[in-house]
Amino acid sequence: MTDNYEARDVIDKETLSTVKSVGDTYKYGFSTDIETEYAPLGLNEDIVRLISEKNSEPSWMLDWRLKAFNRWKKLKQPDWALLKIPEIDFQNQYYYARPANMKEKPKSLDDVDPKLLETYSKLGIPLTEQKKLAGVVEEAPLGEGENRKVAVDAVFDSVSVGTTFKEELKSAGVIFCSISEAIKEYPHLVKKYLGSVVPISDNFFACLNAAVFSDGSFVYIPEGVKCPMELSTYFRINAENTGQFERTLIVADNNAYVSYLEGCTAPQRDESQLHAAVVELVILEEAEIKYSTVQNWFPGDENGVGGIYNFVTKRADCRGKNSKVMWTQVETGSAITWKYPSCVLKGDNSSGEFYSIAITNNMQQADTGTKMIHLGKNTNSRIVSKGISAGKAQNTYRGLVQIGGKSQNSRNFTQCDSLLIGNKCGAHTVPYIEVNNSSARAEHEATTSKVDEDQLFYCMQRGIQEEDAVALIVNGFCKEVLQALPMEFAMEAQKLVAISLEGSVG
Amino acid sequence: MLKIDDLKVSLEEEEKQIIKGLSLSINPGEVHAIMGPNGSGKSTLSSVLAGKDGYIVDSGAVKFDGNDLLEAEVEERAALGVFMAFQYPIEIPGVGNMNFLRTALNSQRKTRGQEELNAADFLKLVRGIAKELEISDEMMKRPVNVGASGGEKKRNEILQMCLLEPRFVILDETDSGLDVDAMKLVSRGVNNFSSSSRSFLVITHYQRLLNYIVPDFVHIMVDGKIVKTGDKSLALHVEDTGYKDFLQLGKEKH
């Protein structure tokens, strides 16, 4: 019996006790009372200029934004997803909100408003350099986890409020800062890579993001460097009636490696809020990026009032030979999720993996999956998707596997499992497979099942309460994906799985 | 300890009575065996005692230490000390054995108002039991019952029993699918666990298990009723002549 497995045991136990202790279903629903400065309501060219000005951007950046904005005006919101999206009034919301005292960017973490620090610590994300990311069970016999550090970039509404371990990372050659800072400090890198994976006109929401993105994270790992710690960005929406549009750009140069985590929460409100992010990953020769997300935006209440509309474009470009990318996502929040983290496998022998858990409960809707575009020779992709529906929720897996004519000897494996809890929810699987050469192979496996009565009875006969039994079985169903997450996130994710399903049985 | 009084049970799906007036009294420390042909209602009896869905109790009562057992939820019955070793133990993919066991044990302890067992004490306890039942570490690391042979699954049931320390155990055809060695191992586990305060209800088709787990009483169940009660020699009689002598008894009592 290895230590690792004992550690996991501790985690599982923690999951169950957390489920019981959390009275309120969404524990991140509080809001921070802080003076906030807004851009005028609505969206026009002046707003785009204002955002650029607030970030003191060079003119090339403004031009880029304006180009995107003019393009966006001509685009239509996509309607092909299996989602009922209420009409979004793009003129009736704010596109920029920042805490008033963030006017002057804090020079160090010591200068950050204590109220903001408190907000993050309440969310379990201490913005200090001594502590590990919250959720790590101190007594867990982790071994390797003992001295693990995680650097955090904290994005609050439209601005980054602070980044930890910046100096330590710098000495390793790693650049980790907010994207607004990168635009000023590292323009040659940003110019070279921004929009090179997700072009401005890629799709309606990505185009909107290009015009109005206010902040986000930037990472550059130079050639031959294995990033000495995990990097993470924590997104928090606080301001009312405000959209969050962040942009993340991560570049792994030849032979570089980084593991990156992303978390998100928002206050509990009656109005829906828009979140349209873009994430671009550039992976050069022999390099590898692991990107993990635990998405826990406010999902709306049980009647479907409020919640975040989450329209996100994430794409990884495996440009170099032997490059690797792994997306892992746990999607439990948001009223609407529209998200397809994709891999473009250009380099020969490159590989892309996508592990996903999408949980929808009550009135939530999710249409999520991935795109694997095989262009290079001998490329490999693997998709493992676990969809769980409860309440009256609708959950769709939508995935494209495209193997190009020149992508000789390429392989895809897709496994797509759906689990239903109750009889008012729905699970849908929409795979698109296009194979354009005879040496390629694509495999697709799909299952749909219900939480098994016999399994529940077995658990309960051993004394386990019904809700705990469901959490246990569902966590088991998701195990393969949970194991793909870094330890800290695996724990948070397990708890979330249980919490998201509260009230789904009985 | 357990008192079943004129119990009548039907299937929920179809209006068909399976148990047609069964009474049975089990005292602490006693081992009762119920034998009977296929379809006599043996497994229905164990399911109803454990609280499985899909059955309607038409009449009668079941008391466990004075508690109305039929009113209690499944997990409450477990916490009261009722344990059923399944004829077909259920597989739970992705859920580690250790996690399952610890969750079960601590849930019961919590329901009973006892403190939860910490990780170290728990591991020590489980390892001790696993060793006695010759269950490997590798098996303990696997998901619950997934990829386990019939014999391994049954040993796993006995391990759960030893860990959860129930006072009343139903062994539902635990001997089915076991070879002689596995049967000896399982029986040894049961015998080591038995005590003057614990009782067993052994449900089986065959006499051979009763060579290892020796009953104080043997009941023959036919068509939803106990038609004959005796000591262990009754089981030997069944072994010789089959159930044909008793089938008639079932009909006469109609």
The major β-sheet of chain A equals:
11 strands, mixed
- Please compute the radius of gyration of chain B using only Cα atoms: 18 Å
Q: Specify the structural class of chain B.
A: alpha/beta
CATH superfamily of chain B: P-loop containing nucleotide triphosphate hydrolases
The rough form of chain B would be described as globular
What is the chain-wise order of helices and strands of chain B?
EEEHEEHEEHHHEHEHEHEEHH
Helix content of chain B: 40-55%
Q: Output the strand order for the largest sheet of chain B.
A: 6-9-10-3-11-12
How many strands in all of chain B?
A: 12
Quaternary: heterodimer
Spans of chain B of 5+ residues with little confidence (pLDDT < 50)?
none
The share of residues in extended strands of chain B comes to 25-35%
Number of H- or I-type helical stretches of chain A: 11
Report on the architecture of this protein.
In chain A, helix 6 (179-185) crosses helix 7 (187-193), helix 9 (453-461) packs across helix 10 (466-482) and helix 10 runs antiparallel to helix 11 (487-500). In chain A, the strands form 3 sheets. In chain A, strands 5, 6, 8, 10, 11, 13, 15, 16, 18, 20 and 22 form an 11-stranded mixed sheet that branches. A 10-stranded mixed sheet of chain A has the order 4-3-7-9-12-14-17-19-21-23, covered by helices on one side. A two-stranded antiparallel ribbon of chain A has the order 1-2. Residues 1-24 and 130-147 of chain A have low confidence and may be disordered. Chain A has helices at 3-21, 45-54, 59-72, 114-122, 166-171, 179-185, 187-193, 204-212, 453-461, 466-482, 487-500, and strands at residues 36-38, 97-99, 150-156, 159-163, 175-178, 217-221, 230-236, 247-252, 257-265, 272-275, 278-283, 288-295, 307-318, 324-331, 336-339, 342-345, 351-360, 365-374, 380-389, 394-403, 411-420, 426-435, 441-450. Chain A has 506 residues and is α/β, with parallel strands linked by helices. Chain B has helices spanning 42-50, 74-80, 97-111, 119-132, 137-141, 150-164, 180-193, 209-212, 232-241, 244-252; strands at residues 2-11, 17-26, 31-35, 55-64, 67-68, 82-85, 92-96, 143-144, 168-172, 199-204, 217-222, 225-230. Chain B contains 10 helices and 12 strands. Helices cover 40% and strands 28% of the residues of chain B. In chain B, the strands form 3 sheets. Chain B has a 6-stranded mixed sheet with strand order 6-9-10-3-11-12, with helices on both faces. Chain B has a 4-stranded antiparallel sheet with strand order 2-1-4-5, covered by helices on one side. Chain B has a two-stranded antiparallel sheet with strand order 7-8. In chain B, strand 1 and strand 2 form a beta hairpin. In chain B, helix 6 packs parallel to helix 7 (180-193). Chain B has a single domain, classed as Rossmann fold (3-Layer(aba) Sandwich). With 254 residues, chain B is of the alpha/beta class. The mean pLDDT of chain B is 92. The chains are: A alpha/beta (506), B alpha/beta (254).
